[in-house]
Structures are given as structure tokens and as C-alpha cells.
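#struct-pred

JT: dropping the chains for the assembly here, can someone run the whole complex?
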Amino acid sequence: MAKTSILNIGDELLIGQVVNTNASEMAKMLNKAGFDVFKTTICADNAESIRTNLRNMMSEYDIVLITGGLGPTKDDITKKILAEEFDSVLIENAEVLAHVEQFFKNRQLPFTSTNREQALVPSKCRVIFNEVGTAPGMCFEKDGKIIISMPGVPFEMRFMMPKVIEILKQNFETDTIEHRTLLFSGIGESFLSDMLEEYEANLPSNISLAYLPKGGTVRLRLSVRGKNANAVIALADEYSTKLKSLTEKYFMGFDSDNLAETLGKQLIEHKASVATAESCTGGNIAHLITLVPGSSSYYKGSIVSYANEVKENVLHVRKEDIQNYGAVSEEVVRQMAKGAREVLNTDYAIATSGIAGPDGGNDKKPVGTVWIAVADKQNCIAEKFLFKTTRENFIERTSNQALLMCLQLLSQNSCE
Amino acid sequence: MAKTSILNIGDELLIGQVVNTNASEMAKMLNKAGFDVFKTTICADNAESIRTNLRNMMSEYDIVLITGGLGPTKDDITKKILAEEFDSVLIENAEVLAHVEQFFKNRQLPFTSTNREQALVPSKCRVIFNEVGTAPGMCFEKDGKIIISMPGVPFEMRFMMPKVIEILKQNFETDTIEHRTLLFSGIGESFLSDMLEEYEANLPSNISLAYLPKGGTVRLRLSVRGKNANAVIALADEYSTKLKSLTEKYFMGFDSDNLAETLGKQLIEHKASVATAESCTGGNIAHLITLVPGSSSYYKGSIVSYANEVKENVLHVRKEDIQNYGAVSEEVVRQMAKGAREVLNTDYAIATSGIAGPDGGNDKKPVGTVWIAVADKQNCIAEKFLFKTTRENFIERTSNQALLMCLQLLSQNSCE
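RK: done, full complex below.
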């Protein structure tokens, strides 16, 4: 089986200015196509660093996929290093040149000598055409290994990856890999692990289980691999069903690592719609829900009521309750949920009101305090939490908890 | 100067299920404290892989920071490997044990033997106490190098990092590093680069410049380093002012890599408030704005009008215009912006309506079509874009473009 590695080049990644989403996106696509990623590395935009890491990866792995350092500016040196490493000179590629010229013409921009350099490629590479940008992809073969360089701009990489995987498939045999992710709430990682001790001990060697705790939930990912796709899928079905039956009490649903997607599936099953009223989460729950393709069939919208006057004027929360209990209170969050259901005319509604910080807390309600409510026609359930963490993580955890509470209300309703 | 490396351990990172935000967060904190990260690597949860990568990093770098694989379950083996590598046995730490017991007691959960194992630490390590979780941090010293292992759970890592940096500062001298980021729009990376050829050629060796194109904008990051903090700051001021004067026409503002933060600063300067009306961006603009601490002083809220009835009922968009022109049209997006300004009672408003895909497009309005409007009391500017990309990236690019248009309207108003 071909061992795959990823090398992401870029100073902006090493100072933490940009999160390296390329590695995870590439890994996901590769994994789906049956290629296992053994290692991903970020290195700096300098010759020595690129050269050393490339050589190390080539000595250990069959495939090295590289992103970054292909832009037109001085800090982009990947192409030069690759030409040196693969005994090439840089030559102008006519097809790439025509594309780059057209690219600038379409944008009504002048075509400079710096732009023209984008059409230079190492003589020993096979060009992978880049329809959506100016830097071409480059594929090298050496000693039975494949080395491919792509642009670091995420959406250019995304467009190029299917072609890259095609090339890899022509050169290497792959296994089928099938994942099943099960979502649990109300139980910790260690208790689940104790509960599944015997199950885990008896798993065949081509099946693995991983624990992924996140914001009050635990996910279990079951991965099955093998040559025969049908057999792999059958095994995944069998072992995930068994897993579910062992953990029924805490099982929230099969899930694609995405609570909003799981909620969406359940809403479609229930033929139900949902709306949100967000104060402290500031639109993030709406964002998570609408990231899911097709969410317009069950999601109507959100009132992000950051200011109290919006809570009053749009969600019809009573002014005196905000004055008496404060915006972060059970009374207000319940009225927000009910208001959202009515104003946006949905079956379910989710509401949040809390103190994300870093300022705004006091002794009685410290930073991290949050009330969450979920409502349907009959019920309105409100709960208070304290998430002492960063502002960003507070928003993330509150959003996940709110989606989870809505999921729980839905499963209650399906039990009745 | 101490060379720093980061090793993130976890199968979930290598199959792309989880984006490795730890590396960038750690790098950001390290960089601010004057530690340069030379390399970050993700490796699998298996003994050989952890051992090989750890040894390689220890041979090349002065500092190795490790996250992951410290949980209570079978797939967590980092602690065992570290004990082996540093000639240690695992011994129970009384202080950690007391903390872990209390941790479970607070949550009213039973304390199992699996949980108890969290209190085992390698005999030769110095424990870094973890107040917010059960897995302790561990610090090892060998041959003048520092190796520190932390939990992979992001918020636990975040709580532990200040202590880690304290330890590093006790062991290594650091430079001061100062960054200035300048935001540009209306010019491409290559044109900026041509414009700055002479400026770049004459930069002192302790100053570097990086180009960061993203969604229609380009950022230039100027980094200055040195021993003397005051001198470094003075140099950063001098060279960023010079840079600004050379590029005045396209300069949008100094920025902390964050358009929403830049917009927030400008709104505070203008003593102005803003609201959003989001269809295709589904709350993401609200989310970006409210991620910024203190945004409640200028942001009032959003109407996420995913359903047309919400556009009509809450934002007062004319039903006949939605019928005649469609929800994705100049007429509708203008009415959304005006509606948001009125309903949410703000100085400025931003509105989006588009087709995020993957479904919902047609010949006249393909997937990726989007109308964006920004309005103040006098003006309402609407523009159409076509972002042919993934759903997620479409949302990101539309959000950035909308924030940028609001920033442009604000700077127009300050020129008048």
C-alpha cells in the first residue's frame, strides 16, 4: 500500500497567521480515495527547509504532495527548488502561458514580466493544468515515487486534487476505507471506553476505533479497510450496528462529524423546520446550520439579537424582564426561543444568551455564563452552562451544546 | 536563538476529520513570545511513528512541543512512549490524582481505574498542572533541549500554553518580533510585488515581507526582529509607514489579519453602528463580526433571512420583487440592506443574497452568483459577483467581500 505524505510550505502557516486547512482537506480526499496519509509537515518558505523536508519525505514515503510557494512574488521559491532537486531547467510552457495571458485579459489587468514567469515549469515535470489560478501543478516521478506540487491557495488546491488523485490511482493500488462515526452525549470518553472493552478487544485487525471528544459530546469513529469494497461496507455496517446496540442509552445518531448535519437529517425525517435567536453566539449557529447543503429545506433563518433593543423589537422579549433579570437569564432566553418560533414561523427554535467575554462578566454572572433554550410547540427547555474558555471556544461550545439540545428535544419527540 | 518545532499526534488529524488548529494557535503564541517555529508535523497515534518523529525533531531543534494522545483510552499512547524515550517508569502523582478525583466528583461521575491512570506520569518529567482537564502536561529536559507534551484538546492546550512559554523563557533567550499587516484591495499580488521591487530590495536583513492573498484582497505582513524591543517597534513603525506611502491608492488599513476587526475599528472611529441581513452567507458575517471582542459597541444584530417569507415579513422586502426578479437580484439585496438598517436601527447595513450551491443554480444565475449591498443613510451600493467554488468557500469569500464593501463605504464617507 502506498504511503502518502503532505508538505505544506509557507511562513504564514508557521507564525500561525493562517490555519493550515489544506492538510486536512487533502487528507480527507486522499483517505476517501484509499490513500493513507502517514505524516503532514509545515515548513518555511526557504530553500534549505524545503529541500530537507522534501528529501526526508521522499526517503520514507511513496507519495509526497506539496502545496505553497508557487505565487509570483519573491517569497515563492518552491518551483526553483523542485527544478534543482529533479535535475531540471525552467522552461516556458506554451499552454500555461496562453492560459495565464487569458487569465489576466479576462480580469482586464496588464500582463507583466512577473506574471509571465508563472508559465515557467521544470523541464522534467508533467504539468497539471490549473484552470482557476495562474500557478500550474507539477508532477515528478523518481525511483517509483510520485511528487506533486500544487498552489497553496485553498480553492486552487481543491480544484486540482481530483486530478492529483487520478494520477495517484494510475500509479498505486489502493484499499477501500469505510468510516462510520457515532455521536454520543451524556457520557465521558473513559466511561465509553470501559463499556466497550470487550468489543474493542475482539475487533478484527482491519477495523479500528477512535475516540473523539468535543465540547460535551464524544464521537466514536469506526474505520474498516480492505480490498473488496462490498465486504468492507458490509463489515462497517455489521460492526457499527453492534456498537450502537452496546451503547444505545447514550447514542445520539450516526453522524458525519457534524452536529448540524445530524440535526438536519433528523429535521428532514420529522418534516420539521427550525429557526434560531442568537445573542452571544452571534450568528454562528445559523452559520453551522447553513454550511450544510440543502439546509434551506428545514432552516428558515435567525434573529441575531446582539443589542437588547433587537431582542425587544424583533423577538418581542419583554423590556421589563430584560431590566429585572438581565439579558443573560432564563426568562429572556425562553422568550427569545418562543419569539423566534413565532416571528420566523417554525416548528422548533434555538436561543442563546450569554457572556462570551473577555469583558462583561460580574460576580453573579461571570464570563462564560450562558443560557440556552430550545422550544417546540409544546415545550421550552432552558439550561444554564458555564464555559470558562476563550471567546472563540465559548461561541463554539455554546453552539454545539445548543444544536445538541435541539437534537435531544427532537429525539424525545420521536419517542413519544 | 532557540529553534522550535511542534508535533501534533492524532489519527483524526491525518484523515482530515479534524483541522489542526492547535499548530497555528501554538505558533501564534510562540511567535508573539519571540520563539520561531521552524517545523510542525502531524503524525499517527502509533508507537513507531511517534518515536521516529520525536527523535528526528529532537535531533534538529532545541524545543519540541507535543500535543495529543494523552486521553484515557486505548488509542492514547503518547505518555507510554515518552516514558520509554526518557528512561522513565510511570508513577502515580499524588497532586494530579487528587485533582482528577476532584474533577470527576465535581461532575458527579464515578471514578474508574481508567480515570486513575490519568494520574500516572513518567518518573523523569516535571508535571505541568492541567486545571481544566484530566491529562497533565509533562516537561522533559535532555542535552539542553526541552520537550513538552500537552493534551490535544484545544482549550486545554490553550490554558497550558502560557505556562509552557514561561518554562521556555526560563531556558532560552528570545528576540522581540513585531508584525505589521497592511490590507489592500483592488490590486493583485504580482502588481503589488512589482510596485515594491525597490523597497523590498533595500530592506534590512532583520525585516521581512510576506504576501498573503485571500478572497479578492492582499495582505502584506512586515516582520521585524531584534534584541531591543523599542528599536524593533520603531523600525516596524518606520517601515510600515513607508510601505503605506508607496501603496496609498490600494491601502485599506492596518489590520490584524482580520477584516471584521479592521471594520470594527473604523466603525468605532466613525461612532457608527452596523447591522446585517444575510441570506446565502447564513449568519457567517454576523459570526465574523461578533468574534471580535467588544463588537457589541457597534454591532446590533442580523436578520438571517434564509427563507423568502423572512425577507418579506421581517425585512419588508416586497413580495412582488422577489417574484419578478428572484431572491438573488439587485432589487432584493438593496431592499434587504435598507430593511436591515431600518428594522435594526443602525447607521450602516450589509446584505447578501446568492446561490451557495451545490444545487439551486440555473443558466441565468449559476451556482456561485451573489449580490451584495451595503447601505448608509444616503447611499446603497450593490454589486454582483460570481464565486465558482465550494459552498464553504463561497460563504467565506462572500462574507469577506461584503465586509470589504462596507469598509470601502466607510472610507468614502471619511473622505467627504
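JT: nice. Chain B has three domains: 3-171, 176-254, 259-415. Chain B touches chain A through 111 residues (CB under 8 Å).
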